Model the fold of this input.
Amino acid sequence: MGIKIQGVPNPRISHEYPNATKPQFPEQRSKLGRARPPEASPRKQDIDESLNILREAFRMFNRRLKFSVNEEIDRVVVKVVEGTTDKVIKEIPPEEIQKLVARIRETIGILFDEEI
Done:
């Protein structure tokens, strides 16, 4: 049942696009199993330049950015901090989400002994 429009694929019928569910770049997967396109690693100089631009933009609003890596979940954490009081205004990803991801990884580690 439904209307067939010429040139518009039906997502329910997999034979129209047999590669639709296959990863585009299976040789490069992230830790969560999602395919990533091949790309050159950004140069440290480019990253530093971008960070300086961000810091200057936030300084105009009396805010600072603090970057760190949460080793437990292997993710970058960004904190927006009040410039005068050093109070954390925003944390990306939020602390609750970081804890949730860590618990999920721990649970997966308990359920599965091997990584393929």
About this structure: The chain has two helices and three strands. The CA atoms of residues 100 and 106 lie 10 Å apart.
